[in-house]
Amino acid sequence: MAQATRRLFSAVLVGLGILGAGLAPVSAEDAKLPVVASFSILGDFVSRVGGDRVAVTTLVGPNGDAHVYEPTPADARSVAGAKLVIVNGLGFEGWLKKLAKASGTRAPIVEATKGIQPREMAEEPDEHEKGHGKGGHDHHDHGAADPHAWQSVGNVKTYVANIRDALVAADPAGKAVYEANAASYTAEIEALEAEVKAAVAKIPADKRRVITNHDAFGYFAAAYGITFLAPQGMSTEGEATPKAVAKLIRQIKAEKITAVFIENMSDERLVKRIAQETGVTPGGTLYADALSAKGGPAPTYVDMVRHNVSALTKAMAGM
Questions:
Q1: Cβ distance 257 to 251 under 8 Å?
Q2: Whether the Cβ atoms of residue 258 and residue 318 lie closer than 8 Å to each other
Q3: 8 A C-beta contact, residue 88 and residue 39
Q4: Which of 82-86, 100-104, 205-209, 251-255 has the lowest mean pLDDT?
Q5: What is the pLDDT of residues 56-95, one digit of tens each?
Q6: Do residues 119 and 146 lie in contact, with contact meaning Cβ atoms separated by under 8 Å?
Q7: Which of 107-111, 212-216, 281-285, 313-317 has the lowest average pLDDT?
Q8: Dist CA 103 CA 224 (whole Å)
Q9: Which of 255, 263, 276 is closest to 232 using CA atoms?
């Protein structure tokens, strides 16, 4: 009897082993919450708050231009398989609605800028009357709001809170992890903002004037007391008119502006032309709407802000 029982038990174990061998193992990556972020800066925020519990797919990657991005079939598949889609909002991702519809996703689409007071665009009429760029779009693609809210470091605390809440709603079991990660990252962001304010405070107010080729730094300007001038509008889809460029060149010469920059995802020819006609040497590359690749100077948001502030303050000081 005992021997028969042992034989039966052994047979059950063998059967279970055979059954188990036929099942694909669940990897640690497969067990993570699949989250889609619209662009690289937002992807970094989601990764910091989500930590090891999330698998983040970023649609517009490092050095990519979300203003003129064209989604791919792979993007539609990513959105379709996501449990959560996080976007900037404020009109930044003009292509997102069509992508979401095409994908058939049932995932919540959360705007990370919810609760942030949007800054209004401030374009001069003569600069955008002829500002039609690729695909017939003009500078008003964003509507009345400037979507680049992450350029004020203080605003990132709202981004983090919104991302935390969205992750908790999608994955309640991870609440403690998301809250702890968000608190830690918020403290890091607060320290970063103090760094920025201290660095800019060292530059005399009359030297805080910068030329860039895309007006993405409005929130940064308002928060830290720097004037940014750009011959192009809010969107990199727009093309600067000859009249706007000529006006800017006269202003650079008259005000002796020394800080001229090219942004990482933009055509550098415009700023180089301005620099050649004014004799001002470009101060390097600024990262506005996208992070750099991992080996570059701005692979994370914190790195991006530190890189930009270092470059800006050196150029404004005439170093």
A1: yes
A2: yes
A3: yes
A4: 251-255
A5: 999 999 999 998 899 999 999 999 999 999 999 999 999 9
A6: yes
A7: 212-216
A8: 41
A9: 263
In DSSP terms, which residues pair with 227 in a beta bridge?
Answer: 209
Report how far apart, in Å, the C-alpha atoms of 181 and of each of 45, 51, 86, 101, 298 are: 11, 7, 17, 32, 21
**Beta-carbon contacts of residue 82 (< 8 Å; ≥ 6 apart):** 34, 35, 36, 57, 105, 107
pLDDT of residue 280: 79
- Domains of the chain in start order, with CATH, are 33-184 (3.40.50.1980), 193-316 (3.40.50.1980)
Distance of CA 244 to CAs 152, 236, 302, Å? 26, 15, 33
Please give the C-alpha separations between residue 186 and each of 115, 231, 244, in angstroms, as whole numbers: 16, 34, 40
Q: Has residue 5 got a pLDDT over 60?
A: no
Taking the C-alpha atoms of residue 287 and residue 6, their distance in angstroms, rounded to an integer, is 69
Q: Both ends of the chain: CA-CA distance in Å? A: 92
Could you give the CA distance from residue 319 to residue 317 in angstroms, rounded to a whole number?
A: 6
Question: Is 260 in contact with 248 (CB distance < 8 Å)?
Answer: no
What type of residue is 58? T
